Amino acid sequence: MKIDIPPKKFLSYEVFPLKVVDYEKRDILLTNSFTKKLVMKIKLYSVNDALRRSINRLRAALEHHKLICGPHKPIHPKMPLEGEVLEFTAWQNTQRHLIVIYADFEALLLKANERKGKNTTIIQKHCPMSYGFLVNKAPKDVPTELLREFNIPTEPVIYRGSESRQDVAKHFIENITDMNEKIEKLLETNIILNISDKDNAKHNSCFKCNLCKCAVNNHTHVRDHHHLTSKFRQTLCNRCNLSIKQPKYVPVFLHNLSNYDAHFQITELENNSKRINVIPNSEENIKFVDKIQFMSTRLSTLAVNLVTPNLEKFRETGKHFSNNEMPLVTRKSVSPYDYTDDWSKLELTSLPPIEDFYSTLIEEHIKDSVYLFATEVWNHFNCQTLGEYSYLYLKIDELLLADVLENFRDLCLNTYYLDPAYYFTAPAFSFDAMLKYTEIKLELLSDYEMLLMFEDDSHKPACGMRNLIMKKYQILTHQTHNDLPFLPQNSIPPGSIVRKLMATFKTKKNHIFHYRNLQQALNNGLIVEKVHRIVQFKQSPWLEPYIILNTEMRKNAKNEFEKDFLKLLNNTVFGMLLKILIMTIFINFVWLSFKKNDGKRSQAFKYKASFSVLEISKTLMYDYHYNVMQKHYGDNIELMYTDTAMATPRYPVMTPMTERKNIPGLFSDETDGEICALRVKSYAYIFQGREKIKAKGIR
């Protein structure tokens, strides 16, 4: 036997399976006689008592291990250390990002007639026609002189291709890369602190870090100053002072990156000599961010939301247009996308007729008032060709995008003291905002077996006290609970391969529940036959302050976007609590199909909290149906559809019921009492005189 000793730089080996076979190993005995060879299965070992007891313990442990780990793929779990907590640490994100780029593309819709598969015909191919971007600086933190010194433009940059110059996407990548290098050099500027006597006295009398609020003294506090202006900002502890170092990367916001603009860019990234990673890190220089990941509302609607009598919220647009032009450029115009199917169309010397503005995507013509507005824009800015109008259209879009996102950043910084420019999605932003606002420290699961116990319930969320039980329905309760059987579970329905949350009368064996759901079921006649295992931990309403904050703000919201966004912030916290990184996969763009999977697994460790969120919401639904509606109406009602976001009774406008709207845990009447529900996430209703149809995944 050879035993390898790990090198001194490694404390121990990291062992994990490279391959786990799908069949079990069996012991056999091979005997060799003079005439033939015999192979026999060994059924019984003759061993001493001590070894037999050891083998029996190992066999029991193996069966227990197979029960827990058998349903899962072989991986090497990377678990937190015992006592490790999840808390807010992103103090850098509390400072406004100094420089952000806002960009947009326009495309020609070239005609095509190409069959793709049995049921698809490609009728248009999108060819990038032009792009524009605006370098936006933090007004008080980046001197304009520095921008001029490093040759960084303050005007919108717009590039338009032509029939002989169809390199728009490539030109964009080259231009953005060059711009980023200039910005990176600018951000390396470090002007020595210039502190006034007043600020110095304020610093010396401060004994608490301005960010993390930890205690500091004259030996541990640090003067934080702005490196581009030399101004004193605040007193910090050494840890926070190091953590808020200005990142070198530049966020580039695009209007519809994921679904549209990225298709132009990906094929041109190979021309960039720098390595490209899908998963970002702090060393990367450019970070492309999709505006849709924060604001799914149309740009035209978002621009309308900014309109005030003095138009003061259009800060970027106001820098590039005069006061008398502002009414024409503070709303989104219209472009004849389907009409511009060839480069030659851009040479047209007049605005196309209204019928050429028809959209095959949404199968609609534009309104006369919209066409009249486009005509007014054309005439006022003296456009000579459709190409010039397209140039102006892109410039306005670019500036509107900048104004919308700058106001959005102001809202987030003033409310949550976090800049969304550091994040890729609203859920990631909301989760950090929640951690910061609540100051919670969530203990992470460090025991892998306990994690699998939570996970075994087919990715039901997990938190609170949880019981692994066997449950039995009495026959007499079937009719009573026929509308909504208790304790639903994720399982695969007959004829399907997808797991769904199903409320059935089947016996639940080795199933996991929150204790409140179990109590509710027992109070309604269900029987527990056996309790296998219990996990106990402390509970508190630590999420309540954040939910109340967003709910109160939603009540005072001035437009539909703010209402939807604040609702999204609350809802996505649950999604982030549930989120788990199933497999760490690194993908490189090599221009060949390549994916590396090292078989390691990194856990997000948030199951406990997400379990309670979902399970407690179920208790509210069941309590409302059985203890309120059914108790009052008896057999005169029948459950049609369930949704934790709404109910459908018809109430007069001025009643106590409507006064309780938007209160967490209570239902709101969103459909005026009538709804047509066909299946999960597929329904229709009439709201404020307009028909609203929901079909998840279908526009």
TrEMBL record:
InterPro entries membership: DNA/RNA_pol_sf, Endonuclease_7_sf, His-Me_finger_sf
Transmembrane intervals: 573-594
Record carries keyword Glycoprotein: no
SUPFAM superfamilies: DNA/RNA polymerases, His-Me finger endonucleases
Keywords: Membrane, Transmembrane, Transmembrane helix
Any single biological process term in GO: DNA biosynthetic process
Descriptive protein name: DNA-directed DNA polymerase
